[in-house]
Amino acid sequence: MINVFQPSLGKEEIAAIRKVFKSNWLGKGPITDQFEESFAKHIRVDKDLVNSINSCTEGLFQSMEVLNITTGDEVVLPTVSFVGAANAIVKSGARPVFCDVDPRTLNPTAEMIAEKITLRTRAIMVIHYGGYPCDMDGIMELAEDRGVNVIEDCACAVATQYKSKPVGTIGHIGIWSFDSMKTMVTCDGGMMWCRRKEHADWLKRNINFGMDFSSGMSKSESVDRNWWEFDVQQAGRRAIINDLTATLGLVQLGKLPKIVEWRNLVHNSYNVELADTGLVLPPILPDDCKATYYLYWVQLDKRDELAQYLRKKGIYSTFRYYPLHKVKYYNAWADLPNAEKAAKTTLCIPIHQSLSLEDVEYICDTIKEFMNNGHSDG
Ligand SMILES: *Cc1c(COP(=O)(O)O)cnc(C)c1O
């Protein structure tokens, strides 16, 4: 079976893990610091504004707390979004308000978000679908105009740039994921950037028991006072990463340019091979933008049949993300026609760094077979 997603961990990662084992320090330590510093460099921001976190989902929950979002508030997000994003909003006491998405990019536009903004709106939570950047200029203009915060879910967009700026650093909070299905893998883990230093500091405490980071265990080298004493400033919990996770992150971050280059090659091969099949392909990236190429999606009326056909031929495919306004739990019925249509017609086909060009050729041939053989009429 050819997978839709697949991690690519190898010798380099094993060697790095061996070193951490030998160091006898597995927890959050010097390697985690290095990883945060390297990631800050990657997204071209101050290291003090970046915190590693044990998952992007946890980061989404934390973002609600950082921004003090609570009962009576509303947060607008695209309905084509990650289930954990909606859960984070619900858990804060606020109401998730779902908006429609562009039919091709599956990203929300400023106009679609604007329709859902009320006096209760405290934040907009955007996602860069499949690593394709949202049109952030319009969204930021709207946010400033209405005085609301922008949270960027960059789980799929670790290498994406919008007008030469890394996404996740355009709004007020950005969160990345390195779970085992993402472009850069640490098994589980993520990174979080806050525009405001006081938010980054608050977060740093909140993911580490609310302890002041200059006290207690984290300053064990100090002999001026008893090192088992500590200060707590807020009732924080534990959502930090460890040096094993971080060492994977460092190696993967080093490989990221190559990973993205390969994904771009696969993406371009699909664009060429599938050009005349009648499928709707992902839109062309604007000139001054870069993508992660996390997903490759095609659109057609007979989506379900193509998915079944590919599966029989040993090719796995899927759809991201089932519209949240259709999930009963959120009790948020809305008329969002583009998302509804996309959910019926969009198929994500395999794209990852371990996919060979022979795989790509086989996938394209199989899709063409389906499109030419009248399967699309049946
Ligand atoms: C994977 C994903 C997440 C969650 O990331 P985790 O690190 O697994 O918690 C959030 N949002 C989007 C869009 C995702 O694809």
Features:
378 residues; alpha/beta; seven-stranded mixed β-sheet; 37% helix; binds pyridoxal-5'-phosphate
Overview of the molecule:
With 378 residues, the chain is α/β, with parallel strands linked by helices. The chain is built from eleven helices and eleven strands. It has helices spanning 11-23, 30-42, 56-66, 83-92, 110-114, 136-146, 197-206, 243-273, 303-312, 337-345, 357-372, and strands spanning 50-53, 74-78, 95-99, 121-127, 149-153, 161-162, 165-166, 173-177, 190-194, 296-299, 346-349. The strands form three sheets. The protein has a seven-stranded mixed β-sheet, sandwiched between helices. A two-stranded antiparallel ribbon has the order 6-7. β6 and β7 form a beta hairpin. α1 packs antiparallel against α8 (243-273), α3 (56-66) packs parallel to α4 and α8 packs across α11 (357-372). The model has no long low-confidence stretch (mean pLDDT 95). Bound molecules: pyridoxal-5'-phosphate. Residues 55-57, 82, 84, 127, 153, 155-156, 177, 179, 190 line the site of pyridoxal-5'-phosphate (PLP). The site of pyridoxal-5'-phosphate has 12 residues, from α3.
Question: What does the overall shape look like?
Answer: globular
Instruction: Quote the average pLDDT.
Output: 95
The percentage helix is 25-40%
* Widest sheet: strand ordering: 1-9-8-5-4-2-3
SSE order, as H and E?
HHEHEHEHEHEEEEEHHEHHEH
Discrete helix count? 11
Uncertain segments of ≥5 residues (pLDDT<50)? none
Name the quaternary structure.
Answer: single chain
Which secondary-structure class do the elements indicate? alpha/beta
Largest sheet: 7 strands, mixed
Ligands bound to this protein structure? pyridoxal-5'-phosphate
Strand content: 5-15%
